[in-house]
């Protein structure tokens, strides 16, 4: 009896340990010189300087497809574009104008570093389509030409609107530095004797299917510090913009933009949330059922519910789809996973899945984790 009780106790201990190991990481951390501190769910009252150096937590769940639209400048400050990797850039312009495509690079980099999104091209989509059209014209050798029909659709579109942009700086003490991104330690830094940078940013999340703005938030970011130090390792956009980003990140207004974008991305993560994987049946070949969920969405052993769509309901006044009923035809279990697809076996099916039937994970996604209280990192 004692041996049996001990066995049950040991099983519970192992199970609890497994639960703790599988627990989700915090969404994000503010990184100081000597430590990092997890961010609370509400960061509106967190000083902007603590949102400058952000480390995004580990994530292994479903990734929503996002398209990033061009940054819109509605402030009273004029816009300018950093045009080429090879051209000379007047870095002083970053204090007198809004570098719209530079800010767009910061948005894309921050979204990418979270590991929570699949980014699809939208601002340069015309160039992609032009390349495909050239390939289909017969002027390019067929094996090397870009194929049509494979451009991924976005679930959401993200747009950042600059509503305020101000900079005031005195002091020229500089060092080497860049922008801190995910899992990268502080490298170097810059100092400004006395500086102020202020930006207003409006982040918008748009449903790509209905064009409805599902979320919007106004963010005010102010960097006002004496002897402000900042370090990092550079943006993805640093290469494409000819080193402009590493210089821009040394200006007070550039730092305010980076902190504001980090907060905007943090808010987007909260809005999109953690959802179970969703996809579609590609084909059913006997006991092998193929889905379009790859290794970024499912793992071996995961169970998926198979859903068959019923009649679609169309609003007679607007012509917009109101959705329709779905019927579950059972469950399947993933037993093989590739980069872009997975293979599952039937568990309890009332019929053979059809191509296009939807699948949805039966296990609830891990909830987003935030600090219970805010502690400034040292």
What is the straight-line distance between the termini?
Answer: 53 Å
The CATH architecture of the largest domain? 3-Layer(aba) Sandwich
Q: What integer value in Å does the Rg equal?
A: 24 Å
Profile the largest sheet: 6 strands, mixed
Give the tally of β-strands.
17
CATH hierarchy, class of the largest domain: Alpha Beta
CATH topology of the largest domain: Rossmann fold
Any low-confidence stretches, pLDDT <50, length ≥5? 8-23, 84-94, 170-193, 226-240
Order of SSEs, N→C?
A: HEEEEEEEHEHEEEHHHEEEEEE
Estimate percent helicity: 10-25%
Sheet-strand content, in percent, reads 25-35%
What's the arrangement of secondary structure elements?
Layout: H1 2-22, E1 28-31, E2 36-38, E3 54-56, E4 64-68, E5 72-73, E6 79-80, E7 98-99, H2 100-114, E8 117-120, H3 125-136, E9 156-170, E10 190-207, E11 213-230, H4 237-240, H5 244-248, H6 252-272, E12 278-285, E13 288-291, E14 303-314, E15 321-337, E16 342-349, E17 358-361
Parallel strand pairs: 4-8, 4-9, 5-9, 6-7
Antiparallel strand pairs: 1-2, 1-3, 9-10, 10-11, 12-13, 12-17, 13-16, 14-15, 14-17, 15-16
């Amino acid at each position: 009896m004692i041996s049996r009780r001990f066995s049950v106790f040991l099983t519970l201990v192992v199970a609890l340990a497994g639960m703790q190991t599988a627990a989700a990481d915090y969404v994000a951390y503010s990184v100081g010189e000597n430590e990092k501190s997890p961010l609370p769910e509400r960061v509106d009252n967190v000083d902007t300087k603590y949102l400058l150096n952000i480390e995004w937590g580990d994530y292994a769940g479903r990734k929503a497809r996002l398209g990033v639209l061009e940054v819109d400048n509605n402030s009273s400050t004029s816009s300018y574009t950093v045009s080429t990797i090879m051209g000379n850039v007047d870095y002083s312009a970053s204090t007198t104008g809004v570098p719209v495509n530079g800010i767009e690079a910061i948005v894309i980099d921050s979204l990418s570093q979270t590991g929570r999104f699949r980014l699809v091209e939208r601002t340069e989509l015309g160039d992609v389509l032009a390349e495909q059209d050239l390939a289909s014209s017969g002027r390019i050798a067929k094996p090397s030409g870009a194929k049509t029909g494979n451009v991924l659709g976005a679930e959401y579109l993200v747009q950042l609107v600059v509503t305020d942009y101000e900079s005031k700086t005195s002091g020229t003490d500089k060092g080497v530095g860049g922008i801190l991104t995910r899992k990268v330690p502080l490298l170097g830094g810059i100092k400004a004797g006395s500086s102020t940078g202020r930006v207003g940013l409006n982040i918008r999340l748009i449903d790509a299917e209905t064009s409805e703005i599902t979320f919007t938030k106004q963010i005010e970011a102010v960097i006002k510090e004496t002897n402000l130090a900042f370090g990092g390792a550079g943006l993805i956009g640093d290469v494409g913009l000819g080193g402009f980003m590493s210089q821009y990140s040394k200006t007070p207004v550039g730092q305010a933009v980076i902190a504001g974008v980090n907060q905007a991305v943090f808010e987007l993560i909260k809005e999109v949330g953690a959802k179970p994987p969703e996809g579609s049946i590609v084909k059913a070949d006997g006991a092998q059922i193929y889905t379009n969920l790859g290794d970024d969405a499912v793992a071996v052993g995961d169970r998926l519910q198979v859903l068959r769509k019923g009649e679609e309901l169309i609003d007679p006044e607007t012509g917009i789809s109101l959705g329709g009923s779905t019927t579950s035809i059972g469950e399947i279990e993933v037993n093989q996973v590739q980069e872009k697809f997975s293979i599952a076996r039937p568990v309890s099916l009332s019929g053979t899945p059809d191509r296009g039937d939807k699948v949805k994970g039966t296990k609830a996604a891990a909830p987003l984790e935030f600090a219970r209280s805010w502690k400034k990192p040292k």
